[in-house]
Amino acid sequence: MASYALRRILGAIPTLLVIITLAFFMMRLAPGGPFDSQRRLPPEIERNVEAAYHLDKPVYEQYALYLDRLAHGDLGPSFRNKDFTVTQLIADGLPVSAKLGLSAIVLALLFGIGLGVAAALNQNRLSDHSIMSVAMFGITIPTFVTAPLLTLIFGVYGLRLFGADISLPVGGWNGGALRIASVP
After folding, report:
1. Which of 46, 64, 90 is at the close of a domain?
2. Residues 6+ apart with CB under 8 A from 129
3. Domain range for residue 162?
4. What angle in degrees, to the nearest 10, is found between the helix axes of 86-121 and 126-140?
5. What are the CA-CA distances from residue 135 to residues 112, 119, 140, 141, 155 (Å)?
6. For the segment 68-95, what is each residue's pLDDT rounded down to a tens digit?
7. Is 136 contained in some domain?
8. How many domains is the chain partitioned into structurally?
9. 20 to 30 A Cα–Cα from 171, which one of 17, 32, 112, 177?
10. pLDDT tens-digit series, residues 113-167
């Protein structure tokens, strides 16, 4: 089992290298550059900017520098957010994404296992057919349809549980907190 996992991981390295190489050269084939949308710079400043980002070197040297930076975890500066690197932006968003992803997995496992056990215990009964129908609807309806509907149900309209109006935040993170208001 460990040798199979090791073979799969080692097999992913050439695939990843091919994808990185294709992405690098496809970006070089695209017309324009990262600073073309800016206002025109004086030639000496433009040369300094190109030197700072190694755009004045041949493509093969740019590729070697790019691979070296990737190997060291440096994804370069952000062209959109000044004074930030791409690594810093990913590191800022990673805890939120991990918390959201893990929460979704836990909810899916709890509901999936619970409803699966209920359907198995009540095989060929109304509850089994109901659970399986809801599961089939969930599989067949695309997420761009279900996401706005679930946002309306759980975020805009909210749920009334145990005398409290509970609704999930529709926009923003808010630290992952639910919006809870008591019902008068």
Report:
1. 90
2. none
3. 143-184
4. 150
5. 9, 11, 9, 10, 22
6. 999 998 888 887 888 888 999 999 989 9
7. no
8. 2
9. 112
10. 999 999 999 999 999 999 999 999 989 999 999 989 888 888 788 777 666 677 7
